[in-house]
Amino acid sequence: MNAITSVTHQELQQRNDTSLLAWGLSKTTKTHWNTLPIRAIVDNNPKLTGTFFQNIPIISPAQLHQWPDPIVLWGGHLENILAKIESLGLANEILIHQELTKSPLFALSQHYLSPNNNLQQKMHLFKKMVRLVELEPHSYCNRTCWFCPNSYLDRRSNTKFMDESILQKLIHGLAEINYDQTISFTRYSEPFGNDVFYSTLKKIRSSLPQATLHANTNGDFLTDATLSKAYESGLNSLNIQLYLPQHQPFEYTYVQGLAEKTLKKTPSLKATLSQKTDDWIEFACTFKTMHIRMYARDFRKNGNPRGDIIPSPSLSNRSSPCFLPFSDLYIDHTGDAVPCCNIRSDDPKQRAYVLGNIQEYETIFDMYFSKNFLSWRERLWSFGPKTFPPCKSCHFASIDFSHYIDNHLKKKMVITKE
Ligand code: SF4
Ligand code: SF4
C-alpha cells in the first residue's frame, strides 16, 4: 500500500522536493500550481493527455508508472482518487494537502458519534467539520419541475416563512464559532421568489462576514435589479440552474436558448461556455465580485433519487459511507433538520427521517449532537451494505472502496468505551 501522509502547505514546502505531481487539472491546481514544484499534472480526462497547463505536461493515470514522484492531492473527490491510485497498483508516495482538501474524511473522529461532548467540544467539532449549512427562509417556489418533489407537493399556494427565533438561533450559534464556510439558500424553495430572501441575507451577512452566502436559483426572478439587490445584501455565490422540460432531449442549442433568455433579463451578467459534455453544459459567469455558475444537467443521467421518491438512473444497494450528515446541516423553513439535501420535512413519506427541530434545542450544536443525528451518522460512516431506507437505494455522495479509506475509517471511528 502507498505511503500516505497528511501534510500542511508549510510542511510540503519544507520537504524540499524537487519534483511533485498534482492530481487533476482542478480549480485548486490552477490556483496553487506555482506554490510547489509541480512537474506534471495527472488527469483522467483523455482529451487533456499530452497537452500542457502553464508549460506543465498533463499525463494520464496510466502513465504514472513512468513518474515515481510523490503525488499531491488537493481539492475535491479525494476518496475516489485514492481508490483509483490503489486500483492502478501505483507505488508513488501520496501527500494529502491539509488546507486545500475539501473532504470531511480527514476531519472525522469518533467524537462525532459520541453523546458525551460538552458545549465547548460540540462547538469546536462543528467548526472543524461542517462545510455547508443549507436553509430556506420561505417555502415558496413558482415551479413544479418534473424531477423535483415539488411536482406533487404544493409550494406555490401558501407561502410560509422561517420564524425569526429559528433564524436568530442559527445566526447566533454560527456567529459564536465565527463560521466561515458556506450558507446556502437552497432546499425546496426559490430564494428570489420572496423579498424575505434579501433581509435574511443582510442579517446573516452582518453577523457572519467571513461566510460564503450562496443560493441556487431557477433564474425566473433574475434581473439586473434583483441580482444587484442580492449582491448588496451579502450574496457572493450563485448557481443559476437551466432546467429542461421532461421530454426535451439534452441538446446544446436548447440549453443555449435558456441561457440567452436569462442573459437578456440580466444584461450585466457576462457568460462564456466553460463545459460541454453529454450530460452537463456550463457557462462561467461574471457579475461584480460574485462567483456565478449557470448550468444545465441531464437529470435522466445524473439526477438523484431524492430519498427514494424520484425515479433515479442507478438505484442499487448502497455500500459506500455517506459523510453528508457529518459535514452538512439542512434546515427547512419550519426549523426541522434533516440528514441530507434529499430529505424534506414536508413530505409525509419522509417525515420519519426528520432528525429534530432547532426550536427543541438550546443551541444548534446540541441539535447537531442529538441522539437522532448521532445514530444516523453511526449507520453511515463505514463501508458495508446499508439496509435501511432511504440510504440503501441512494447513490448520492458515494465514494469508491479502497483499503486505505476503509482502514482509515476503522482507525478513526471505532468508539472506545467512555
Ligand atoms: S427544482 Fe428548484 S425550481 Fe424546480 S420545483 Fe424544485 S425547488 Fe422549484
Ligand atoms: S445515503 Fe443518501 S439518503 Fe442517506 S444520508 Fe446520504 S445522501 Fe441522504
TrEMBL record:
Gene3D superfamilies for this protein: Aldolase class I
Keywords of this entry: Iron, Iron-sulfur, Metal-binding, S-adenosyl-L-methionine
Any single Pfam family the record assigns to this protein: SPASM
Keyword Iron among UniProt keywords: yes
Keyword Manganese part of the UniProt annotation: no
InterPro entries (alphabetical): 4Fe4S-binding_SPASM_dom (IPR023885), Aldolase_TIM (IPR013785), Radical_SAM_PqqE_MftC-like (IPR050377), rSAM (IPR007197), rSAM_sf (IPR058240)
Protein name, as recorded: Radical SAM/SPASM domain-containing protein
Natural source organism: Sulfurospirillum tamanense
Lineage, top ranks: Bacteria, Pseudomonadati, Campylobacterota, Epsilonproteobacteria, Campylobacterales
